Amino acid sequence: MNPFSFTGTALRSRIDSAGFVVDLLVRTVTSLPYLGRRRRFALDMAFNAGVRALPVTMIVAAFAGAILAMQTGIELRRFGDTGVLGTITALSMCREMGPFITGVILAATVGSSMAAEVGTMKVSDEISALEVMSVDPVNYLVLPRVVALAIMCPTLTALSNLVGIFGGSIIAQQNLGVSQSRFWMSAQDALTSSAMLLPKELYVGLFKALIFGIAISVVSCAAGLRATGGALGVGLAVQTAVRNSVLLIIVLGFIVTWFFYFLE
Amino acid sequence: MIELRDVTKRLGTRQILEGMTFAVPKGMNYVLMGPSGTGKSVTLRHVIGILKPDQGSVQVDGQEVPAMDREQLMALRRRMGYLFQNGALINWLSVEQNVALPLEEHSKLGKGEVRDRVHEVLRMVGLQQAAEQFPPSISGGMKLRAGLARALVTQPEYVLYDEPNAGLDPIISHQIHQLIAEVRDRLGVTGLLVTHSRACATECGDRIGIIEKGKIAIEGTVEEMIASDHPLAKAFLGGGSD
Ligand SMILES: Nc1ncnc2c1ncn2[C@@H]1O[C@H](COP(=O)(O)OP(=O)(O)OP(=O)(O)O)[C@@H](O)[C@H]1O
Ligand SMILES: [Mg+2]
Questions:
Q1: Domains of chain B in sequence order
Q2: B84 contact residues in A (CB cutoff 8 A)
Q3: Has residue B167 got a pLDDT over 90?
Q4: What is the model's pTM?
Q5: SS (H, E, C) chain A
Q6: Scanning every residue of chain B, which has its alpha carbon at the shortest distance from the alpha carbon of A125?
Q7: Can you give the pLDDT at residue A197?
């Protein structure tokens, strides 16, 4: 095959699908007035998502916090400065690691199942059936899923932050000789350094998580809605959903950090 | 009145419809027959505006369907029922909730009225005992009948039936045919039916059109078609079939 035409086709299909995602996001936002009617469904979804992702997220967060403390601890020990371990662990967890871990796990567990559910509905004509009944699939299917993750991703992130710092504190105490009280004190200082009610270190991370939650659900529903051709198509939709979600988590994470810390 | 004129449609690399032309007068059941994969379901999708023709015109009551905006399309769909080939029930809703869905989303009926209406239609298709069950746990024939109930529950003027008797035993099949004929006679519903079964075509059809190569190859009243010598008519309606 001609490499130029191949690249062109591949590029066009990427742009098409990106356009579809953006369009779906806009349509979801404009269907917000339906939220009242879909409230129950959205809360059910949020609960299910939380229950499904909670155990893995907590385990990964605890280990991530521990690894952070170990890695930085090794270097800090050389300078005899392990006292700032709490600060470093807390800041890295809250700003970056917490939202990132939660986002990736939600993409793998909840996002993938959203793509599979919506994709199965698509290939078995259920989406067409909704359209024929003049039920908009966006407000009926997509809106509650987006709201569910917009609630759940920040919630799980807050828990991951806590559990991650806890994981770090254990390593600090066991392996690096930093007492629990000292560790938590410096963690607390780091997080409440600014005088605001909700300190920046916390809200930037939670804002990131909110963006991730919305991105994962919209991307996954979009992949499902574009599925074609039976079970195979559903499998591809799941693959697309997880890949695009993880990609977006990294890119959006970068943009949000840049926006809040470098654009002043 | 449903009217298709010279409709062409390409899907992927295949030309599915090529000059599809037919008309369904008000109050009649028009039966589309034809070999598998000739575009019968695709034709129905054009009538309700899920697919748009590449060329040609699709009209319902003189209005051009492909040119309709969202509002007009919604208005049209509210007057139209559609039975999908496999029922296309929403998996996580019970049979009862599935049938109630179009009423709950659009009509101003109260809860009690919706319930009554839903149970009446479920009785018509013989599914009253299965009201609480969920689609994954019922048979293909039951899904189809639930789909039929959902298509009829809004009391539409038009109903598009995609293989209303696929996978049904002869006894229930016969009941469904009678129901379709009755819906036409009592409520004046205009129907467009897709079927492979001679019994279905003759028991509830008024006119029959047989598709070949993307268009209607032969068409006529039920009597004309049964008497016809055309090989397609013989294949689909001859004594040996069904
Ligand atoms: N979305 C689509 N994209 C590409 N091809 C499609 C699509 N939908 C249908 N087709 C093709 O169009 C052809 C006609 O499909 P259709 O479902 O209308 O057949 P049918 O006449 O209803 O057959 P059956 O009796 O088996 O239901 C098939 O070959 C199918 O592969
Ligand atoms: Mg078909």
A1: 1-79+158-242 (3.40.50.300), 88-155 (no CATH)
A2: 125, 128-129
A3: no
A4: 0.90
A5: CCHHHHHHHHHHHHHHHHHHHHHHHHHHHHCHHHHHHHHHHHHHHHHHHHHHHHHHHHHHHHHHHHHHHHHHHHHHHHHCCHHHHHHHHHHHHHHHHHHHHHHHHHHHHHHHHHHHHHHHHHHCCHHHHHHHCCCCHHHHHHHHHHHHHHHHHHHHHHHHHHHHHHHHHHHHHHHHCCCHHHHHHHHHHHHCCCCCCCCHHHHHHHHHHHHHHHHHHHHHHHHHHCCCCHHHHHHHHHHHHHHHHHHHHHHHHHHHHHHHHCCC
A6: B88
A7: 67
